[in-house]
């Protein structure tokens, strides 16, 4: 059951770059679960609103029992140490950057949710045992725990694993994931420019095929990158490859031709 309801929230859609930024950043944030359930729900609201899609309740993939966080420790009268879940630290750093970067702080529901996540994560990350006192310093530590050689041997034997081979496989998977994310980004950018062309009256095949860069510069507020995509759309339409271009498949076809 959702604790928050932003179904009637207002999203300022004037700044397309800001919306695109939130789309990209929430793609990353939803990959990481926080130990705080409110934060997880708010991130999914952020994800849904930035895309103008219906909110779906999130599913926690990790139970609290598996976090294995140590209890807060007091070093001296005014110094305390807290063991923070790595995902929480990751989320806090991203949200802190957005919260402190005033260019994205338009007064709408997206900013309201970011502020809410920030204050919750501030309490999750920082031990507050001296309320009312200013902070002298904040220090972050990295603690690494490795398995011992015997455990590693048992894992190899039990699962028939080659750790060097697994590292190579992990690198390949990360490369494929990066390639896929890059293509998805290309698709979003091209469809965005396509919609912009339609908005400025280029709503037939003939109009797009006859468009000139000089005309676009005068009529629209497109930047250099958008103009290059617009020209690509025009050329793809002339070559009867519009779907291939919009789906970012033309480079893949070129690579296949070269490999053959």
How does this structure look, described?
The chain has 260 residues and is mainly α. The chain has two domains: 16-145, no CATH class; 182-259, no CATH class. The protein contains eleven helices and two strands. It has helices at 16-29, 37-51, 86-100, 109-125, 149-159, 163-199, 205-209, 213-219, 224-238, 242-246, 250-259, and strands at 73-76, 79-81. The chain has a two-stranded antiparallel ribbon. A hairpin with a 2-residue loop joins strand 1 (73-76) and strand 2. Helix 1 (16-29) packs antiparallel against helix 2 (37-51), helix 2 packs antiparallel against helix 4 and helix 6 crosses helix 9.
What is the SS-derived class? mainly alpha
Radius of gyration: 24 Å
**Overall 3D form:** extended
Helix content: 55-70%
Q: Order of helices and strands, N to C?
A: HHEEHHHHHHHHH
Based on DSSP secondary structure assignment, what is the total number of beta strands?
A: 2
Model regions low in confidence, pLDDT < 50 over at least 5 residues: none
Percentage of β-strand residues: under 5%
What's the rounded overall pLDDT mean?
83
Secondary structure tally, helices: 11
């Amino acid at each position: 059951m959702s604790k928050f309801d932003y179904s009637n929230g207002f999203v300022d859609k004037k700044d397309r770059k800001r919306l695109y930024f939130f789309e990209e950043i929430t793609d990353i944030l939803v990959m990481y679960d926080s130990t705080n359930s409110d934060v997880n729900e708010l991130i999914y609201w952020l994800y849904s609103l930035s895309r103008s899609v219906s909110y779906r309740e999130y599913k926690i993939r990790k139970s609290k029992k598996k976090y294995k966080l140590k209890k807060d420790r007091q070093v001296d009268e005014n110094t305390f140490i807290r063991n923070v879940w790595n995902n929480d630290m990751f989320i806090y750093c991203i949200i802190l950057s957005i919260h402190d970067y005033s260019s994205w702080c338009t007064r709408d529901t997206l900013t309201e949710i970011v502020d809410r996540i920030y204050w919750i994560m501030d309490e999750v990350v920082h031990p507050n045992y001296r309320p009312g006192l200013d902070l002298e310093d904040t220090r972050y530590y990295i603690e690494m725990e490795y398995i011992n050689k015997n455990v590693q041997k048992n894992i190899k034997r039990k699962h028939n694993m080659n750790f060097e081979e697994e590292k190579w496989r992990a690198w390949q998977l990360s490369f494929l994931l990066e390639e896929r994310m890059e293509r998805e980004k290309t698709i979003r950018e091209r469809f965005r420019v396509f919609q912009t062309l339609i908005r400025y009256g280029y709503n037939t095949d003939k109009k797009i095929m006859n468009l000139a860069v000089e005309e676009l510069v005068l009529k629209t507020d497109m930047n250099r990158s958008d103009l290059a995509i617009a020209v690509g759309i025009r050329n793809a339409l002339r070559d009867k490859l519009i779907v291939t271009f919009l789906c970012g498949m033309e480079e893949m076809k070129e690579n296949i031709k070269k490999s053959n």
